[in-house]
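@channel sequence for tomorrow's demo:
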Amino acid sequence: MNVAETQSVEQSAIRKVSWRLVPFVALMFFINFLDRTAISFAGPNGMTKDLGLTAAQFGFAAGVFFIGYIVLEIPSNLALHKFGARRWLARIMVTWGVVALLFTWVSSINGLYTLRFLLGVAEAGFFPGAILFLSMWVPAKHRSHILALFYLAQPLTIVIGAPLAALLIQANGLFDLAGWRIMFFGVAIPAILVGVIAWFYLTDKPADAKWLTTAERDWLVTRLDEEERAKGASAKGHGSPMAALMSGRVWLFALMYFGLIYGLYALAFFLPTIIGGFEARFGTHFNVFQKGLITAVPYLPAAFALFLWSRDATKRGVRSWHIGVPALVGALSVPLAMQMNSPAATIAVITVTACAIFSALPNFWALPARFLSGAAAAAGIALINTVGNLAGFVAPYITGMAKDATGSYQLPMLIVGAMMLMSAALAFAIGRTSQERTPEAVAANAH
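C-alpha cells (generated this afternoon):
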C-alpha cells in the first residue's frame, strides 16, 4: 500500500476500534465505579443511621474494599493475560454484581465490612485489565486518546449516577426496603447483565476481530507487533513480570498514582457527606435529589477538562507535565474548599480539584505502557494499580478518622493536598531524569 492507502486503513481501523470496543468497556467501567462508590450515596441517606456508623467506621467500610482488591490484583491481571480479556472481564463483572446485590440486605456493621471486602475481591483486576485490554488494541500514537475516551466514564458515573442513586433512594418503602437498600439493588443488577453480554461481545485481540477488514486487521497486528519488538529492545530486562515488579521506574509510577487516587477517593466517598453537612454549616436545606444533583456538579466540567487535556496530550505526545500540572492544581485547590463561606464557593473549588484529578489520570496510564510489554505489562500495570489503590483504603479511613478527631474536613483536605503534591513532584522529577519521547519517536527507532 502507498502512504495514502496506509493512512486510510489506519484511520478506519482506529475508528472501528473506538466505536466497537471503547463505549462498551467504558460502560463496564461506569458500572464498576458506580458499584464501588454506591456506599457514598447510601451513607448520608440512611445507611449510617440505620447501621450506627461513625465517620471512621464509614471510612473503614469504604476503604476495606481495597484490601481484597489489592490482594488479588496482580494474580487477576496475569490470569487475564493467560485466559483472555473476554472471559476474564465477563467473569469479574458477574461475580461483583452478585456480591453487590447482597448489600440490599446488609444488617450490621460487620456484615457491611465483610461485603465491602468481598466486593473488592470480586472486582480485583477489572480496571488494570480494562487498561491492558485497550492498550493491546491500539498503537501508542492513539493510546492516550482511546484511554481518555474510556476514562470519561468515571466522572460521568457521578454526573449520571448521583441523580440516579438519589431517585432510587427516593423510592423508599418499595418492597418494604429502605431507600438506600433499593439503591444498592438497582446499581447491582446492571453488572450481572452487562457481564453476561461481555462474554459474547468482546474480542480478545485484533487478529480475532472479524468486524475489521483484512487490511485493517493486518495493519493493526503489524503495527502492534513492531511496537512490542521496539519495547523489547529498549526495555533492558523489563520484559518479564518479576523484572517489572522490581523496576524502580514502575514503583515511582505506583507512588505517583497513589497520590492521584488518594485525591480521587477522598472526594468520591466523602463529597456527598460534605454536601449533607451544608445544612449545619451554612443553614441551607436540600432534599435527596437536590443533593444528588449538587454531587454531580463538579464532575461534568471534569469530563470536559479530561477530554480537552487528553486531546492536547495526544497531539503533543504525553509528557510528564501532562500529569504534573493538573496534580499541582489539585494539590493547591483542594484544601481551599473547606475555607469557603458558601455552598456555591465550596463546590466551585471542589470542581477545580475534580477537573485536575481527571485531567491527570488518563494521561498517567499512557506512560507505563511505553516501557512494559507482554506479561511484564500485565504485572507492571497491576502493581501500579495495586499500590495506587492502597490509597483507596487509606484515603477514606484517614479522612473519616481526621473528621472524627477534629470535627471538620479541613485537616482531611489538607492531607489530600499533600498527597497530590507528592504526585506532582514525582511527575516533574520523572520528566527531568528521563528522556521523554513521543510515541512516534519510540516507534521510529524500531525501524
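heads up for whoever presents: The radius of gyration is 21 Å.
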